[in-house]
Amino acid sequence: MRLSELFRLVWLNLSQNKFKVIMTSIGIVVGSATIMMVIAIGTGGKEEVAKQFKNLNAGAIDISYESESTSFSGGMGGMSGMSGGMPGGDFGGSSTRSFGGGFGGFPGMGGMGSSDRMNQENIVLSTEDMDDLQVFVPGINDATISYSTTSSVEGGELEDSATYTIAGVLSNYMEMSNMDLSIGEFLTDENDESKEKVCVLGSSVAKEIFGSAYDAYDGVVYIDARPYVVAGVLEEMGSVASGISPDTAIFIPYNTGIKYLTGSDVSPTITLVAEDVNNIDTVITNVETVLADSYPNAEFTISDAGTKMEAASASNDTLTMLLIAMAIIVFIVGGIGIMNVLFVSVKERTNEIGILKAIGCSQKDILLEFLLEASCTSMIGAILGVLLALGITPIVESFDMRVTLSVADAVISLLFGVITGTVFGFYPAYKASILIPVVALNQE
Question: What is the pTM (predicted TM-score) of this model?
Answer without folding.
Answer: 0.57
